[in-house]
Amino acid sequence: MILLAGVPTSWYVALATVLFVLGAMGFALRRNALVMFMSIELMLNAANVTFVAFAREHRLAEGVSYALIVIAVAAAEVAVGLAIIIAIFRLKHTVDVDEVRELRG
Highest mean pLDDT: which of 16-20, 51-55, 94-98? Predict the structure, then answer.
């Protein structure tokens, strides 16, 4: 088991910031719905890193509880989001959000 007792919380926050910025850039710059979807998941995981890092620093269980709630919400989002993406792909034969302007057939 690796003990990370010497790693300061600021490093975790810096990692979460980098992950969040990468996710935000991926969402803003890419037009593929699947890539945008993965970018949202990356931003949610960045939030989880900060929740757990501050929970570890303050020795509280609430941060871990919030992270588990975010994971549950992300799992529900994956189920609904992928169903929508598959339905749009079957209808329009593309996952490019610029080509899919409306949901009518």
Answer: 16-20
59-71 residue pLDDT tens: 888 999 999 999 9
The answer as to whether 98 is a domain residue is no
Per the domain annotation, does 71 fall within a domain? yes
Cβ density class 7-43: b for 16+ within 10 Å, e for less: eeeeebbeebeebbeebeebbeeeebbeebbebbebb
Q: Answer whether 65's CB lies under 8 Å from 52's CB.
A: no
Question: Which residues, listed in sequence order, are joined to residue 32 by a DSSP beta bridge?
Answer: 96
Q: Are 49 and 63 in contact (CB under 8 A)?
A: no
Domain CATH number, residue 58: 1.10.287.3510
Helix, strand, or coil here: 96?
strand
Q: What is the pTM of this model?
A: 0.84
The backbone torsions φ and ψ at residue 32, rounded to the nearest 5 degrees and listed phi first, read -80, 130
Cβ 96 vs Cβ 33: under 8 Å: yes
